[in-house]
Write a structure and sequence with these properties.
By secondary structure, the chain is α/β, with parallel strands linked by helices. It has three domains: 3-79, no CATH class; 84-394 and 681-692, Rossmann fold; 399-674, Glycogen Phosphorylase B (Rossmann fold, 3-Layer(aba) Sandwich), CATH 3.40.50.2000. Helices cover 45% and strands 13% of the residues. The protein has 27 helices and 20 strands. Strands 1, 2, 5, 6, 7, 8, 9, 10, 13 and 14 form a ten-stranded mixed β-sheet that branches. A six-stranded parallel β-sheet has the order 17-16-15-18-19-20, sandwiched between helices. A two-stranded antiparallel ribbon has the order 3-4. The protein starts with a helix and ends in a 9-residue tail after the last helix. The structure holds pyridoxal-5'-phosphate (PLP). Pyridoxal-5'-phosphate is lined by residues 115-116, 119, 485, 555-557, 560, 572, 582-584, 587.
Length: 701
Amino acid sequence: MSQLHDRLLRLSQNLWWSWNDDLDVIFRAIDQRLWREVNHNPVAFLRLASEELLRSKEGDATILAQLLRAEKHLEDYVKSDKHWTSWNAPALASCPVAYFSFEFCIHESLPIYSGGLGVLAGDHLKACSDLGVPAYGVTLLYRQGYFHQQIDGEGKQSEVYNELDASTVPIEPVRDASGAIMTVTVPVAEDTLTAEIWRAHIGRCQLIMLNLSEGPLLDRVFRLYGGDKTTRILQEIALGVGGYRALRKLGVRPGVLHLNEGHCAFAALEAIAERMDRTGLTFAQAADDVAESTVFTTHTPVAAGHDFFDAGQALHYLRPLQARLGLSDHDLLALGRVNPQNPHEEFCMTVLALKLSRRANAVSSLHGIVSRRMWQTLWPERGATEVPIGHITNGAHVDTWLGTELSRMYSDCLGADWREHMCDPIRWRRIEQLDEFQLWNIKVILKQRLIDFVKRRTQARYTRLDQHGPLPQLRSDALTIGFARRFASYKRAMLFFQDLDRVKRLLTDPARPVQIIFAGKAHPADEPGKGLLRRLHELTQDPELRDRVVLLEDHDKNVSGHLLEGCDLWLNNPRRPLEACGTSGMKAVFNATLNCSTLDGWWDEAYDTKNGFAFGEGVVFADPAQQDQHDADALFEVLSQRVIPLYYARNGQSIPLEWLSMVKRALKTLAWRYNANRMVMDYTRHMYLPASGTQTAHMPF
Ligand SMILES: *Cc1c(COP(=O)(O)O)cnc(C)c1O
């Protein structure tokens, strides 16, 4: 192998490249087409690139210089201790955070995420890396991942699972001194699960992944959200118990245990059992200690988002853990029940997490209110406002969601060191000076790139279906709306089409054309969600709408990125108050794409009447049909009365100055706050430091 190959391979082993441009520049210079084909994945590129190709570039001075630069950058980044944590939370250095999550999105080549929850976890870990917070992500390595979505000629979704080829992603098994792959075992019921410990380097941090071995019961365990309740409880025991054991085996003693959503709450039980084994404490004492260092984040008010297990099933699979904890059936089940005396109540992972942690939070201000009300039954002696669940609003990891073109523009306008001042509202005021002509023309280029992407994707789908219809003709001068997220019912993907005639008039106005691009997967078991997809697909076949409404298959991080940068407007219309936070709209802000959303999740606290658009006024009706009609009318009104006129009001150079001034205002008022650095700083100050016991505990909420 060439020396160039080996040096690039070494660099590609740290997923820092998923939010840093250094490698992008090099691979683009080696073979731009191959680079695009492999979706900007350097490991896959090096697998496919011929030796001649790489040898032929060995003497290329530009590439070699860039390679040296990339090596130096990575080394400095990983080794430097001049980071935020050094100055603001030095005590954490000896108290690493174990961040457990059922899904993680780092890059689309590692499809172990389904939507916002995984994206948030990945963004959290990347921000921990950037800020120097010592953190280990812990999750399962789903070898068949989350499904790839195919939509057939009738609009029917099918789920395709591909076996992960570990040689095309930068993940590796962890080996002991003798070179053997390290494993953990997890007793469940009368069996034992075995898993290899794998790892990915995420900048300064690591993502620990358990690779489960084949075995009885483990039919669908290699898929994310692909199985039944049995699969799910096995996965959750594997993640919680196995994940905690893996950390201990690697010599990591977590100073803080962060449970990202209830799925991973068994980790706290394992931590308690381990503490009892090690110190001889009773369950009550050990549980108290563990709770003090455990942080729990709840992510949804939607019932289906909380795991419930039948009591018999929970007892069956938890037997070995129960023996170590020395708990009776009643006492074990009580940990997952609101009312321990009710034998019919199911075992709930959210209840378990709330009972085993001393610090809990929701993910937006509104979601905090909703969660306190939702879980008040656990604190019957308190009023809703005294329920101890605070909130830390989510944030998006900016370099993950920002393309090169816009990030260069920010560097020019805000100063080259703007990343170090990401959370400083004063710094973001400089965005006022952004040149409108430049901003607008970059957005037009990005929109054209999106349109080309849509063409390629649609062409590939037609080829697969052996279909020969014309490709949708999108226009780079039309107001372009994006809607991309999971097709969960409460997100109401079809609200836009509530009154079809009205929408047709709006979309096909020859003077002020509008087009809308959708993408999203329905959960494999979600028949109503699949129904929405089918209906949407039918609309894309309507001759009047075919060049105005597009549905992209197989929504993932890559599709999401193209849409966020290429669209003008980001539509979000969840049924209030069911969207706990929503993060795609934050990514839109950084991409100079305006938000148009119901007042739910983060938008309820972020909207200031001039930094984007809101509709529905936050009114909540008891009847969902009435709610939908009301919100659809309000959406139509804001589009026709405000959005479209503003977008098409042009100056002499055909630039929509007022629109761009709103874009700037969005950046100025929102960027400093709704980014992942601010989020991780909040977690560190308000949760991690107090939980680590390294400073006097204080609860700011
Ligand atoms: C950001 C993101 C989401 C979350 O979108 P919401 O609007 O918050 O639901 C889902 N899927 C992907 C691929 C994303 O990038």
